């Protein structure tokens, strides 16, 4: 692949990811969760379904423990997550979704399906699923991090 094609592909993939994040966030806001930022969705993805420690959230987001702790504090204040005693490590606290957090996660899932309907209209379901399969081969299992 020549440099121009490589740069074009890079820009297209990054733009597609940004558009998808923005569309999902807009769908979450439209469903009544107006006090969140896209970064919060990436935290929720790490917490579902069993929770995580602040250290695990920091690793997931690629940020410092202090930055992750600030995000968790914000989400606790808004009622989306709570801290609980860790079931195995008495020194750690487990951050878990509240009922409100679970409802927001479901809203994000609905928004993701809705956002991908446009992609399916353009590419067709077989090509969209083939693209998913190829992307999974390129980036199996993440990390899933905000781009801004």
TrEMBL record:
PANTHER family: MARR FAMILY REGULATORY PROTEIN (PTHR33164:SF99), TRANSCRIPTIONAL REGULATOR, MARR FAMILY (PTHR33164)
Domain HTH marR-type residue range list: 6-140
InterPro entries documented for this protein: ArsR-like_HTH, HTH_MarR-typ, MarR/SlyA-like, WH-like_DNA-bd_sf, WH_DNA-bd_sf
Superkingdom of origin: Bacteria
Species per Swiss-Prot/TrEMBL record: Actinacidiphila acidipaludis
Official protein name in the record: MarR family transcriptional regulator
Signal peptide per UniProt: none
């Amino acid at each position: 692949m020549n440099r121009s094609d490589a740069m074009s592909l890079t820009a297209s993939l990054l733009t597609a990811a940004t558009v998808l994040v923005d569309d999902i966030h807009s769908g979450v806001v439209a469903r009544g969760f107006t006090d969140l930022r896209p970064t919060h969705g990436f935290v929720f993805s790490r917490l579902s379904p069993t929770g995580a420690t602040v250290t695990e959230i920091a690793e997931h987001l690629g940020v410092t423990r202090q930055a992750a702790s600030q995000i968790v504090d914000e989400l606790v204040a808004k009622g989306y997550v709570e801290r609980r005693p860790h079931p195995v490590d008495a020194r750690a606290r487990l951050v878990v979704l509240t009922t409100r957090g679970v409802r927001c996660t479901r809203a994000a899932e609905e928004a993701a399906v809705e956002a991908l309907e446009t992609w399916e209209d353009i590419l067709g379901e077989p090509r969209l699923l083939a693209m998913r399969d190829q992307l999974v081969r390129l980036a199996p299992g993440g990390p899933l991090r905000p781009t801004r």
